[in-house]
Protein 1
Amino acid sequence: MTNPLLSRWDTPFEIAPFDSISDEDFAPALEEALAAHNAQIEAIATNPDAPSFANVIEALEAPCRPMEQVLSVFYTVAGADSNPKRQELQRAFSPRLAAHYSAITANKALYARVKAVWDQREDLDLSDEQQRVLMLTHRGFVRGGAALEGANDARMQEIKGRLATLGTEFTQNLLADEREWFMELSEEDLEGLPDFAVAAARAAGKEKGVKGPVVTTSRSIITPFLKFSPRRDLREKAFQAWAARGANGGETDNRAIAAEILSLREERAKLLGYENFAAYKLETEMAKTPEAVRGLLMDVWGPAKARADQDAAVLTEMMQGDGINGDLEPWDWHYYSEKRRKIEHDLDEAELKPYLQLDRMIEASFACANRLFGLEFAPLDVPLYHPDCRAWEVTRNGEHVAVFIGDYFARGSKRSGAWCSAMRSQAKFPEKQAPVVINVCNFAKGEPALLSYDDARTLFHEFGHALHQMLSDVTYESISGTSVARDFVELPSQLYEHWLEVPEVLSEFATHAETGEAMPKEMLDKVLGAATYDMGFQTVEYVASALVDLAFHDGAAPADPMARQAEVLAEIGMPHAIIMRHATPHFAHVFSGDGYSSGYYSYMWSEVMDADAFAAFEEAGGAFDPERAKALEEHILSSGGSKDPAELYTAFRGRLPGVDALLKGRGLAAK
Ligand SMILES: [Zn+2]
């Protein structure tokens, strides 16, 4: 019998035939797929014809159908509907796939042919998109170390191996410190804690094998403790343990590891011909240079610090009202800030929820896409991987655009969080393929299913990513949809969240599950007001971390990262009662792997852009301004990675993004 993962899918819109695939099919299908892909690569590398755009770059672009089919189905079910068998397969597949792809980048014969095409690029008469794909392909090989020879090549391999080991050690040390520490609480120590926090503390005690409740460094336990416990001495003790993760001396101390990682990264960047690691890392981003990143962060820092200082004064006064003199300390901030929040923005989640029905919020996200881009959504009855999944055919003017799958409910077999992935990406080469896009969320089930406001934002966020995939209109798959720079990829998703806040959208779709009435205006105002609460604090703790990350990688690697961290914080005037969101010894974004090293700024970068981009609609006359919607689709949503992101943004906006709209949105603009 043929393996259903390898045969051509004769289904509506070539959606994977989930009902005929079993877990036993994955391993043999992957073997065949790897062999097929290796054969494809080998044929390109050893082609006796002179290297050309068609026989090298396009040949690499041509999808390896067996690989795409196996991996798209496997990753979908491994993330959204796992089981022990699938977990075992995942453990087996990950190293094989990592080795497979790094062997392609290290293939010298293949690189020689890519370089030959790159060297004749001026004479090839390529379209803009073809030039871009050629540049990205060549750059990918060079950045992977394909151009290095002899001793340099060997040293690069050594560095990569050592960095992988250090990253794993960093993570494991952090986990060990987090597991190690706990603080036992007596019954009186539970005073002021809400029921859910008490229950969590008791459950944690059981897990630690002690009689009573405990505080641990798990975010879901320590954060409510710092918010609600009136015991200043206990808050201090818990806070100090939290802040010291990774810096407790002994075997699990991460400080020397951080220093070695930074030094190896610098060496690696220099081997590849870059001035420092930040220059290497930012080359592929919209920001491009450390100066651009620092400029943006500092534009936000000033107003954020000013707001945090004002807030600190208010909180200090509240603390003194409790008879405590002296400075507001970091272990006081959450406690007094929560007290203040209750006074100024009390929002009853239980009252809000009936207005946010999942089905109506899905309708709202579709209705906005209809008004903005003319998309229509019709339910599609096809077998999927779980009975909770739903599918729609997406059309425009009667023509097929995409298939959209929504998998909204939490279950034990799904990993946490929310994400968007494409089971098939849009492309026109070598033949036209329409996208199949999935949004996966973790909402609670119910009759009807009701969302929190954060859930509703998540739904719009992931749908924004889906639009980026569905409206993609490029030739080559490697630059399709969300295949863009890291600091650009969150623009469509974060931007789409703004339509949830449009009053006419909420008044039409946020209707009470029982009475059908629209959400009252006062409630809407409260929801929006709560969203900007304590933004001074949040912005300061975040921007400080981003600036330290940048300082570590821009210039010579510091021999003593802790000293460099202290220097940076002193330079920017870090407020006394706020610490970095992630201090160096537990800054996993930066040290557990390369993903966000010299890139922690990108969350803020995207937020600056989404605020600025939505302001473009408001300036033009409203959230549904047709000209702006057209420009958004033409220059951003349909373009994927076919052009430099700064060029795409400028084409949409007429200029690069500025921070004004973000400061306004976060409530940090001068009043
Ligand atoms: Zn996102």
Protein 2
Amino acid sequence: MTQDLSTLSQLCNVPTAPYAEAYVAAYIRWWAAEPQRRDKIFVQSDVVGNLHLLYQSGPPGHAELVLEAHLDPPGFLVENILPDGTLGAIFRGGVKPSCFDRASVQIWYPESHLTFPHDTAERPAGRWAPTRVLSVEPASGNNPLRVVLARPEGHAAGGTPPGSIGMWALPEALTIDRLFAARVCDDLAGVAVGLYVLDELIAQSAAVNVRLLLTRAEEVGFAGALAVASRGLIPATSSIIGIETSKALANAPQGRGPVIRVGDKSLTFSPALTRFLSMRAGGIADTDSAFLYQRQLMDGGTCDSTAFAAFGYDTAAVCLALGNYHNMAEPQMNAAIPTAGPHIATETIDLDDFFGLVRLLTDAAANFGSYTPDHAALRQRLAAMHERDQRQLLESFRVV
Ligand SMILES: [Zn+2]
């Protein structure tokens, strides 16, 4: 399996924010159009601009496995320009207002505009200009935060169009030993896992049907996923495995392998699909003692999988333990991790966790034909064990 970081790094450097995912969509279209993939992966966008990458090498009509990740991190969109040249911006996504204190931000100035979601671009043409937070208004109810940003350096008052993307002023992705640090890991690293899995399925000529569903605006409350689930944009019989990054926990730390996420803050997920993932992970670990995995409730947040499960889809989840969740700097973080103010830092994942998750999902996808969304196989095994080993003993050692 490749350990090439270029797709992961390129993807995690693309400008993106909730409702402003055009550049990531363009990158993914470019990726899928590369010669080694263009005959294997078909890209569709649905009515709201979610991307569906279809790998269909299995028998027609054979069950399709859906892998799912989201295209947006928390971020800024410029809303208006104030008379003094400062910018009024909206910030969507869960970041504590206190973290905005003295934080540096950058605004993306594109050289050309993309047609969403149809254009293709390996690297978005444009550049970042630095600015900083002047003030932040605490949100009321479900409203996003309102932020005032200084006039970006090098840009005249009035030179920043409404709708421009703002992100924390953090450098391009880098590695610190086995730690991958980027402006965004949530969930572009999850998207990258999906892309690497598709590459592995192509390399193995796997005879399966897999859909990689990449949703928009998760950070505002699962907007793209809810459009899919509520409008039935994928078949009701689909099994869905959500791929996320989720705040590392004391019992789910970084570097201990990918996490089979039995649930999030809101729900626990499909017992049968979760068990299928555990069985596949256990099978890999049996043949390779270096393969690590974890099975945990990751209740640091709610994810798209809850949206799909609530609408009746057979849904499971996996994740990578995330450092500096939503860029909120942790007190004990590695001193080499880049920051953009006293409380803002790059998000991090562990690269062995990343490639472990690619391996697990490739195995699960390649063997998805053996999955049944009920407990029939487990029930048969337990019933056989009961008949063979237990029944006679229960009956011969009566206590009354
Ligand atoms: Zn996420």
